[in-house]
Design goal:
Layout lengths: L8 H11 L9 H13 L3 E8 L5 E7 L5 H7 L6 H7 L4 E3 H4 L2 H5 L2 H7 L6 E9 L4 E9 L8 H30 L6 E6 L4 E4 L1 H10 L18 E4 L2 E8 L2 E8 L8 H11 L4 H8 L3 H15 L4 H10 L1
Antiparallel strand pairs: 1-2, 1-5, 3-4, 4-5, 6-7, 6-10, 8-9, 9-10
Helix pairs in contact: 1-2, 1-8, 2-8, 10-12, 10-13, 11-12
């Protein structure tokens, strides 16, 4: 439901997108986002998917108002789809079907007669964006079932705006979800990969870190083996940490710092000290003796070559 106090329902929707990690499970986010969007943009159906530039199918997708079998049929007709070449030439801009092919030609074409007509689709507007370094492409299509209600240039601008927001919000949801699953504070930049290192999602900074570390990296596949879960792995001058969810891996990547020389438990103790917790409070949370916490803390200070909590706090904030 749109917030009653919002002056602009679309602004209210965007705000809810960025708060979605609090209440929407990761595997429901895409479908939830397009279902909430559809009445606001007055589309009869919406498809939003992400995949690989060289693949015909989506890795992830969300739909609203469409038959469940529609994405598979769309993939089957990929070679005959008049929108696709125009989308690939106009990445980052919305494309309306009526700009690509005139009505007489489209409505007499096999793809309309045998596919779109079957699903009640009369008007289409789509937006595609690609990240060559990761090989990822995202597609958002809005559909109308009324031939007399074509999309407008103003709605094209709105689609571009909405795509930017839901893509950013999706990364926020994934980041928060995996942080909650792992029980650790997210660090650095993140990406989602399969076990072979093929990207399913990736932050721009994650890809930039790889470019700086691996001078000959050609992109589209992780240039190192997916790390074992729940441990910090050193990759050149970078550190990586992996969390596993089903068949996918959430990988965090950051430049190595002095703090990365500490064990996970010692780092946790230092972080809790910096948050103002006492040795007794930390001991209770970590199921350790207060003397053990104290000893590990001062040993960590020696390793980091800092003399007191103030210097430690500066180091943590710098990290």
């Amino acid at each position: 439901m749109v917030g009653m106090g919002s002056a602009d329902p679309l602004d209210d929707y965007v705000a809810r997108l960025y708060r979605a990690w609090e209440s929407v499970p990761l595997h429901h986010f895409m479908s939830w986002a397009v279902s909430e969007m559809r009445p606001l943009v007055k589309a009869d159906g919406i498809l939003w998917g992400t995949g690989n530039l060289n693949a015909a199918r989506f890795h992830f997708k969300g739909m609203s108002g469409l038959d469940p079998g529609y994405p598979d049929q769309l993939a089957e007709w990929k070679a005959q789809n008049p929108m696709l070449p125009h989308l690939l030439r106009s990445l980052g801009s919305s494309v309306r079907l009526s700009q690509v092919v005139n009505d007489d030609e489209f409505y007499s074409s096999p793809i309309y007669q045998q596919m779109f007509k079957r699903f009640g689709i009369e008007r289409i507007m789509s937006f595609a964006a690609a990240e060559p370094r990761s090989g990822l492409i995202t597609l958002m299509s809005w559909y109308r079932f009324d031939r007399d209600h074509d999309f407008t240039a103003e709605e094209a601008a709105l689609q571009e705006r909405m795509h930017l927001h839901i893509s950013n919000a999706a990364l926020n949801v994934a980041h928060a979800f995996f942080a909650i699953q792992s029980g650790t504070q997210p660090r650095g930049a993140s990406a989602i990969c399969d076990r072979y290192g093929h990207f399913y999602e990736a932050e721009s900074e994650f890809l930039s870190l790889l470019e700086r570390q691996f001078a000959n990296w050609q992109g589209q596949v992780l240039p190192f083996t997916v790390p074992p879960p729940k441990v910090v792995t050193h990759v050149g001058n970078l550190c990586a940490r992996c969390e596993v969810l089903g068949e996918l891996n959430f990988i965090q990547l950051w430049p190595e710092t002095p703090l990365d020389s500490l064990s996970a438990k010692d780092r946790s103790i230092c972080e809790k000290i910096a948050q103002g917790l006492s040795f007794k409070e930390i001991a209770r949370r970590l199921n350790l003796a207060p003397s053990t916490v104290s000893n590990r803390f001062y040993s960590a200070l020696d390793k980091l070559k800092v003399e007191n909590r103030t210097q430690l706090l500066r180091l943590l904030h710098k990290d």
